[in-house]
Amino acid sequence: MKQLIKRLFSDSAAFAVATMGNKLVSAMLVPFYIKYLTNGQFADWGQTNTFTLILTYLCVLGTDTAMAFYYFDAKSAQERRTYLFNAIAFSVTMCLIFTAFAYFFGAPLAEVVYDHSGDYTYLLAVAFLATVGAIIIQHLLGYARYAGRVWLFNIFSMAYVIGSNLLSLYYVIVQKDGVMGIFYGQLVGQTAVAVLLLIIFRKELVLKFSRKHLSDLIKYGAPLLPTLMAFWAMSSISRPMLYHMSSINDAAIYEAMMRLASIIVLVTSPFQLAWRPFSMSIKDREDAPQLYGLVGRGLLVVGTVAVMLLAFVMEPIYQLFTTGKPGLGSGYLYVWALSLGTLFNVLHTVFGVGLLIKKKTKIISRGFMIAAVVYVVGCLLLIPLFRIWGAVSMTVVAYLIVIIYVYTQNQKEYPVDFRFRAMLIYLTIFLAAMIGVTWVQSNELPNAWAYYLIALGVTVAAVFATGLFSVRSFRQIGRLLPKLGGKG
């Protein structure tokens, strides 16, 4: 058992190399886009990405997730290959249909999607066509992952992300093609990598359309679409809302904030990768609920304190990230709220550990769909009044709803003492302190460091005052940690 768990951690870490490397490199290249694009063009880039993301969900229709099941369920290598071909053929065909639509109706679509006079008649068509290559890559690299081909997965994952970004920068900086240049680079880079992968996997592709195999894939994958749409709504829909309901410049600021806040994922990803196998490996221990409770409370405290400390030093980091470009300067005020949303998203996997153990993951999906509806309605109401604050505040509210919903449902299936009431009191104090930090920063008050120390002191004191942790709790952690290696 220990060897299996060790292998799981090892594989997770190996596959994480490409994911984390891609996010880091992509984030490092964003300042170049900010420098060489106008604020309006930068907002247009984010606007286009919003539509290409939902296009990917609609075209893939969960068949990539279905392949993860049928790769191992297939009775033979021939059947497995048939599943792969039909998954790719279906997704590519769907994407080409959308591309053709965007090509023939490019002008009226551009008038609806974009708010200013750029020549974007064929922008969505080019972006959708580039997505064809990305979908082929997604399917084939997924197949490589299931086959345990770690280095092939890592090399080509990084090749297509980094290569496409560098090509995009060439078209933006040298050719001066603006937003179109970004997607020219993606089209060339992703098509090239897709062709190389098709050549490498040519023996794995059985050119045989099968209604049965395609039906299996869609029946398994399509029910996941509502959950994916919920994720899309909570992560992307605020972009077009700000773009059309507030201002293009606000949309540009939000895009820069989102790109910077995404770096936080580099910190949370290792925990997410390790948590699932770790939590399942100890589920039969008598003290498992106690361990889950400690992890949940510990992650909340460490994560929120880290968010607060990050907020203290965010302004120079943000100014460096955005190259000090006029019009984008206020974005640093909002990054902590987006980072807190990322933390809440990680926490739901801990508060819902019992649902994972009991295999009731549909309940978690339901929580996200409820939160997505609240998020969309909240943004519609708040963005016209509070602009960017309306969007970022709803990010915190929506993910908090997920946490509360998942927690209450988890307690029905697998009770864990998270000291949830103490958590909510602590979060209230933390949010009050962060609102104060934001007020001090937005008004550029002198000696801000003094308030920072007070806010940090109050937050740390709240950890103990609410009963979330005590000195005895830390002693328990010290006694429990050595046991983790003694029982698999």
Write structural notes for this entry.
The chain is mainly alpha-helical and 488 residues long. 82% of the residues lie in helices and 0% in strands. The protein contains 22 helices and no strands. It has helices at 2-36, 39-60, 63-73, 77-104, 106-113, 123-146, 150-174, 178-200, 211-221, 225-236, 238-245, 248-261, 265-281, 288-312, 314-321, 335-351, 353-357, 361-386, 388-413, 420-442, 448-465, 471-484. Helix 2 packs across helix 4 (77-104), helix 3 (63-73) packs parallel to helix 6 (123-146) and helix 14 (288-312) runs antiparallel to helix 21 (448-465). The longest helix is centred in the first third of the chain and has 35 residues, at 2-36. The chain is globular, with a radius of gyration of 23 Å. It starts with a helix and ends with a helix. Residues 480-488 have low confidence and may be disordered.
Helix content: over 70%
Name the helix and strand elements from N-terminus to C-terminus, one letter apiece: HHHHHHHHHHHHHHHHHHHHHH
> Rounded to an integer, what's the Rg over CA atoms?
23 Å
Helix count equals 22
Mean residue pLDDT? 87
Report the uncertain regions.
480-488
- Tell me about the largest β-sheet: none
Q: What is the subunit organization of this protein?
A: single chain
Strand content: under 5%
Distance between the termini: 6 Å
Structural class: mainly alpha
Overall 3D shape: globular
Question: How many individual β-strands?
Answer: 0
Pfam families: Polysacc_synt
Membrane topology: Multi-pass membrane protein
Protein name: Membrane protein involved in the export of O-antigen and teichoic acid
InterPro entries: Poly_Biosynth_Transport (IPR050833), Polysacc_synth (IPR002797)
